[in-house]
Amino acid sequence: MTPQxxxxxxxxxxxxxxxxxxxxxxxxxxxxxxLHSKLMRAATSPARPHVLLVGPRGSGKSHxxxxxxxxxxxEAHFASRMVIARVPAxxxxxxxxxxxxxxxxxxxxxxxxxxxxxxxxxxxxxxxxSRRVLLLVIENLDRVFAAIGTEGQRALRAWxxxxxxxxxxxxxxxxxxxxxxxAQPWFGGMATFLLSELNAAQSRDLLVQIARSTEDxxxxxxxxxxTGFARTQALTQLIGGQPRNLIIISDGLSRESLDELQxxxxxxxxxxxxxxxxxxxxxxxxxxxxxxxxxxxxGGATVAWLAAxxxxxxxxxxxxxxxxxxxxxxxxxKPQHGADRRNTYYHVRDPLLRHHLQYRQGLxxxxxxxxxxxxxxxxxxxxxxxxxxxxxxxxxxxPRGKAATPEVVLDALTQxxxxxxxxxxxxxxxxxxxxxxxxxxxxxxxxxxxxLPTELRVLIDGASNR
Amino acid sequence: xxxxxxxxxxIEVNAxxxxxAAELIGRQDLEAALLACAAAPSHGAVLLGDRRIGKxxxxxxxxEPLRQVGHLVVRVSAETASLDKFAxxxxxxxxxxxxxxxxxxxxxxxxxxxxxxxxxTLRGTASRGESSEAQDLFLAxxxxxxxxxxxxxxxFLLDEIxxxxxxxxxxxxxxxxxxxxTLRKARQELPEVVMFLAGSIxxxxxLADRTVVNDLTEMHVDVLSAPDALTLARGLILGADLDVxxxxxxxxxxxxxxxxxxYYLHGVAQLLALRGGxxxxxxxxxxxxxxxxxxxxxTSRYDSRLDEYYGQHAELVRDxxxxxxxxxVGPTLAQLAQSPAVAQHEASRTDMLDLLRRLEAxxxxxxxxxTSTMASELIGRIWRHQRRLQ
Lengths: 466, 390
What we know:
Helix content of chain A is 55%, strand content 8%. Chain A is an alpha/beta fold. Chain A has a 5-stranded parallel β-sheet with strand order 2-3-4-1-5, sandwiched between helices.
């Protein structure tokens, strides 16, 4: 049967039929169960268990909110007692605390600016609510809090605490001082739900759900096989388990492109170009330089190396890295053993952003080798538990002097780990550093291991946490 | 509500939100003390306790019982840096507490608020028959509330009062003192007025001279007693529908990890609910450790805020806390002075005593006779974790 066109919206789930979102939900059942319980408690008691969903962009926060509200709204108590006011996800119109109250007044059918004589918006809201509970949904709470400032945050808290008739359901890409700093008004004021990445099995389930919805029988069949799972493992290792990435990659995914893997990854990078460009252009020039330099290394780098590479004062480079870490764009690591433990290695947290920069510069060799290595590695891992695999036959035993195909590099790595002398491999210039770090890391050089792309460390560590 | 055979009620996990009075565990003595204080000829009380210990919940819980015994209750949040916003909150609180129609009768015309240095004045009349000249807002409002109350006691629940006081002190300590003096004046001049104050910031950070609140009884909101903490933990296990292999052992471990701090008990229960799977004491320990490692509850602030709080003495304070947190038995001042880390600062006995007192007020330490210990095992563990002393 020919696959059908899809109607999945990776960036605006609110515009999709909520029943389809609910059906497609994978790996969020515990979050939804807990959230449902809190929404129902708010509807049936004076409890106001505010919730903050925390997860990187594309982790499914909006999806979870839509599904949670949908499920709750089917309950009579919720429907009769709760009134939902939603701050638009872009939040650009919210610049003052009172804008939030105006959103609520509108949701309640009132007209902002027509407060009771001598009364406040809060009193107007209490009147409009008429003993019901306001569920104020705020996505991108970090931006909204930044816009309304500390005084606005205080006023919001005073309103919520004093009235007792407001429940907050908010989301943010990461914890930020407005909720995490003990000196701030909303410190600890909301239960934090961290949305973790989907693991390989959950990622496969999501891809299966979407393939079924488009009646792509061939793809469903591959995904259900050990080979399909190996491909999903490789894919998840490379792009992470963010549902949005999986949804984007599913657009145009076929049995063939998943099996080959590289075409699917290329489609994803192409699809994410506007998003990554927006992320990069929102950075300061210094921040962009650091990200670009880190991406060119493919893996981790020290402050000293980066400062020299981008011709920046080390102090400035360190400060810039700190800001990037605060934004969740880079992460820092120290060697756990060996090497010089005083050094800190920074890397771009999202491998796709790193690959985006390489991809846009036409540096395809590192990505192609990375994809190939992960594909073969997980193939071989699956082969250990299944005889079902049909692709990627075992490579020749002696890799010396051979071109750096994934099979050859993985064989060499196995030999290094077994204590054999490192073999000679012919490596394309752009991927040379990658292979060098990989083999040295496999030989026990911790610093070299940290200079590897994070997604490839599984080749050395041998166990994936995905 | 479902009750299990042991009589433990399920309690919904609610880390940081508003807790219903029926689910507030282990605060009965404080509730009773506050209600007694409102009934007695007293000016009120100030609630002291660490951030997120439950002071606001306690204020909320006594609101209805106070009304039931006939008091007029006015709840106001002072969580603002602005006196005029506080004044607006106060007027709104009075309209709600007194009742809109009664309040409209009291107000002859709209009150105009004028914010001066350290005080808020009211232009116009807040109470029939009173002078229409500028008058102290709080006193005028208290007078109006008294009149509307018809002889009843008027109980003001003023939450986060220390936020406003600290913000005022930032520009001038005299402003904070003056503001709190206006509250004291209303208490002194109107015997019907009682105030319960609470705040997440220690008053000592806003006020060097605390005479303006020395008519208020200090009440300490502390971690829960072991039996109460266990009751809460067991209720949370039921409420979160946790799949536990030994309910009592898991509850005991939750209490041990959190030292009975209710916010963290809720927090751990939430983490376990989201983690799923079978839960034993080991999973509780792991969840708590992971939360500390990820700084999920911003416990690093216990260390980082010391520079702001203690200025030039911050390093000495860190060494004092390191020494106390690692001691098997709480050290005396003399023993602290002899520890190498503390001795290097060559601080005077008076300075060290002052710092120990301030650390007690900031909920790091607890005094026991002549010795000092960490305020709870939890604070000790957090400190050792932050300072990598484990």
